[in-house]
Design brief:
The complex is a heterodimer of chains A (244) and B (39).
Chain A: H1 9-35, H2 49-76, H3 79-110, H4 119-137, H5 144-157, H6 161-171, H7 192-223
Chain B: H1 3-27
Classes of the chains: A mainly alpha (244), B mainly alpha (39).
Chain lengths: 244, 39
């Protein structure tokens, strides 16, 4: 039997966060699949909204973190900020893809088509391409400072697409519905059990996303070589600041 | 096609995505351009 390892306080808190995310996810599944009633018009497939909308929200939140970390990197030139941007972008890309796939399944069930050339759908696809490109750019150079600087510029400029996606349903006449919860003038016309399922979905995705981000960030930062440059066998160079 | 089939397909894909993220967080590569500090 292996003896108990002493966990750092960071590690302990991360495990607690992971356990909380799993518990809330179970509650969200119960609310979304069992307790919430089927939609009067859309039937059962409306339950896909309890994961589709939280996935989109998690993507938006991730890209906001990419923006903040990118600005911080350009100001401080610390690769820790760059690692934060990378971890957040990895989460954002997967969540954007998930939102598109779930929306597509819902569209097939309710609209009868997998895809429509609709402003919300197209702008979201462009958002996915921007951040796929962002992740791709990170591997172009052998100089980590160059990669981080290029990524930071795209991480800041690319964020312009986020409000475009959000407001696309208001700026253009779209097939995609307008916001239900964030509607500017109307009170949420939503059943309490449906609202609870959606709220639990938001919380589950947010907690799970936070867990992924922090766990991935710890791993990316741990990868940075210890400052023992010059020692035989040790990494030759640690670039903290990129050269202009 | 049963209405529930779409629901299970969607929730299944979401669960698989998160399982992938857990695996990526725990065992994923630590490369990504700026991590390539070893020559």
């Amino acid at each position: 039997m292996v003896g108990r390892r002493t966990l750092s306080s960071y590690e302990r808190r991360l495990r607690l966060l992971g356990a909380a995310a799993a518990l809330v996810a179970l509650a969200a599944l119960t609310l979304g699949l069992v307790i919430a009633p089927p939609d009067a018009l859309q039937g059962q497939p409306q339950r896909l909204m309890y994961v589709h909308v939280p996935a989109a929200w998690t993507a938006f939140a991730s890209y906001t973190v990419v923006l903040v970390a990118s600005v911080a990197y350009l100001l401080r030139r610390s690769l820790s900020w760059d690692a934060a941007a990378q971890a957040a972008a990895e989460l954002g890309v997967g969540m954007t893809a998930l939102a598109i796939v779930l929306g597509s399944i819902w569209g097939r069930a309710v609209w009868g088509v997998w895809w429509a050339w609709d402003a919300r759908l197209v702008t979201t696809a462009v958002l996915l391409l921007i951040y796929l490109g962002y992740l791709g750019v990170r591997g172009l150079s052998d100089d980590p400072g160059v990669n981080a600087r290029r990524a930071a510029v795209i991480g800041i400029a690319g964020f312009v697409q986020v409000p475009i996606v959000h407001f696309s349903v208001l700026w253009w006449r779209t097939l995609h519905q307008e916001p239900t919860i964030l509607a500017p003038d109307t009170s949420p016309p939503i059943d309490g059990r449906m609202a609870a399922a959606l709220g639990a979905g938001f919380l589950a995705f947010t907690l799970a996303g936070a867990w992924f981000f922090l766990r991935r960030l710890a791993r990316l930062r741990a990868r940075r070589p210890a400052p023992a440059a010059g020692t035989f066998g040790a990494p030759v160079i640690v670039v903290e600041r990129s050269t202009p | 096609v049963s209405e529930w089939l779409w629901v299970w397909a969607g929730y299944g894909i979401a669960a698989a995505t998160w399982a992938g993220y857990v695996a990526w967080a725990l065992h994923g590569p630590t490369t990504g351009g700026s991590r390539r500090t070893e020559r």
